[in-house]
Design brief:
The protein is α/β, with parallel strands linked by helices. 37% of the residues lie in helices and 17% in strands.
Amino acid sequence: MHTLVTAPNQFAEVGGRRLAYRRFGAENGVPLLCFQHFRGTMDYWDPQVLDGLGADRPVIVFDVSGIGLSDGDVPETFEEYADQGAGLLDGLGIAQVDVLGFSLGGYVAQAMALNHATRVRKLVLVGTGPRGGTQEGAHPDYPMYATRSEIPTLDDFLFLFFEPNEQSQAAGRAFWERRHQRTADLDAPTSTAVMKAQLAAMAAARESSDPSFGELRRISQPTLVVNGDHDVMIPTVNSYTLQQHIPNAQLIIYPNAGHASQYQYPELFVAHARLFLDS
C-alpha cells in the first residue's frame, strides 16, 4: 500500500490539461479528495495526517492547472478549481468522494459541495472560512509572511500556521520534518504568477453580496469544521460562521493552536476526522 511519501506522481487529462496527482492509502472505501492551501503543492501535505486518514480509504492529492507539475493556467476562481477536481474524478472513474479542504482549499471544497453536490458525500473544512467572511482579528503582518519568500520557509510556516508558544512551535518544527520525508519525484514549487492568481481568487471569495450567508445553507453534506483557537490568517470566528450556517455541521476548536491545528494535533485530528467520516 502506497503512502503519501511513496506514492508515484501520476497524470490525468482534464479539460485539455495534464493534471498531476498522487493516489495512496487503502484500495477500498470512499476516496478522500484533498484541496491544498495557498501556494501549496502535493509536497506540502502532512504524511502523518493523510496516511492516518488513508488507513481505511484511498486518498487523492493533486495540483490544479498551472500549479506544481500540472499544465495550463492557474484557475481564476475557486469554482474552476472545483470543476477540475470533478474532472479528475471523471478521469479516474470515481463517482463520489469525501472532500477535505485546508485554508484556500476549504473555499474550493465548499464550491465543490455546492456545484458538484452529487459527487461529495461528506465535507471536512480546516482553517478556512465562508465567502464574505471577516478578516477582523487577522494579524496585520500575515500577508507579508505569506508572500515574502520565493519558496515558503520554516519561519514563514511557524508564524502563519502555528501559535507563538513553545508547544505549538515545537509541533510546527515536527510537521516541517514530516513534510520533507519525501526526497524523490518531488513536485515543482509554485511561482510568483501562481501566488498572484491565488491572491486574486482569495480576494474575490472574500467579497459577498449576501451577509446572511445563504450560500452556506445550501451545503447539504454532513460537514466537519476544524480550526485552532487563534488563526492569524482566516480568523477563527469564521469557523463558527461555517458551523452556524451549514445545516449539518459540527465544529472542533483545538486549544493553543493556529491555522494548521490539524498538524499540531495530528493524531487527535485523524481520530476525530475518521470518526466523522466513518459514522
